[in-house]
Amino acid sequence: MKRKILFLIATIMVAVCVQYVVVPEARSQDDAKRSTIVKRMSQTSPEGLKIIERIQAMKPEINGMRSAKTLIEIIQEYAFNVGPYGINPLGWEATEKAESAANSLARWRIVFHYQDYTKQYFEAEWEYDPKAERLIPFDIKNATQFWTNEGPQDGTPSQRLKKEPIDSGAVQQQNYRGQENVKSPVEPIEPKEETIAGVATKVLFEYRSSFETRFIEVVIPDESYSRENLERIWRHYCDKYADKKDWLDVRIYTNRSYEFNRQLRGQPVNMHTGETIGPNGTRVRLRDYEASFLRMGKGALAYGGDNELMIYSPNLDEPEKKVRIVLAGEDPFK
Q1: pLDDT, tens digit, for every residue of 246-297?
Q2: CA neighbor of 57 nearest in space, from 115, 128, 114
Q3: 316-324 long-range CB contacts below 8 Å, 24 or more apart?
Q4: What is the dihedral of CA 9, 11, 17, 21, to 10 degrees?
Q5: CA quadruple 39, 181, 185, 114: dihedral sign
Q6: Element (H, E) at 46
Q7: How many H-runs (helices) and E-runs (strands) does the chain carry?
Q8: Which of 47, 73, 61, 53 has the alpha carbon at shortest distance from 132?
Q9: DSSP string over 167-180
Q10: How far apart are CA 112 and CA 135, in angstroms?
């Protein structure tokens, strides 16, 4: 019985890579999402654990191109090297695909569970083909983010951490930079007030990820919301980040939406529905940004490029009605 308990605990706590273990932060018993994740990870078989160890050292492929870094190096980079906007790794699961279970070299479904800096739950899924030794993103939204064409550089986590196998008979905690364990993501920093293109704004965050993408989120007063002002703010960031090798992603909230969401900060969020879950079980849907801009190449997997797309709500009283406007080039998703 003791060996079974130890194995179950070790299975649950298999996280990020074979060289360290992340202990999921304790949550309320009402956190059904986390409980479901833990249950799914705990059902990974001993063979599945070996598969997880194997694929972590592989370089995922997109459109036949292999990443310049291994999957675990990219995850380490995103967990420890992007400041307050890093991810919080929760763990892995691996299941044999039913349609090929009869084959000696069955394909595997690999899922990595994590939280972003806002503490929302996400999962990235790949398919592993042991016969071809290929690891392919199975979901286009999350798994494709864990790919890069930039190789390891001096001082990256992949060079700082030693690769040591996990002892499956015992749970071993290893620290990173002397920490007790990997902490949960911090709360979003306080917005920075700026005047951009003549418009008073609050910059929620502005950073470049390791995936050649610049993310910017700002808030503007309701009375300043107009297509003209939105485009002026967009043009400001296009000029500021003139190098088109990066995907540029700018999202603009009105103050009404920002304040509405801010009052719900700290409550658990269902990532699939965008709803917060209050102490008494009440659900409230968070408000989306009213406008967004993209500068990128062609296709969802592209990085930088010349195409510029604007998606916004012309009427703030009907935020669900969005309009797509191509500002330059063509619609990258059509």
Answers
A1: 889 899 999 999 999 888 876 665 544 567 777 777 888 888 889 999 998 8
A2: 128
A3: 316/222, 316/225, 316/254, 316/256, 316/290, 319/257, 319/287, 319/288, 319/290
A4: 0
A5: negative
A6: helix 46-56
A7: 7, 16
A8: 61
A9: -TTS-----STT-S
A10: 13
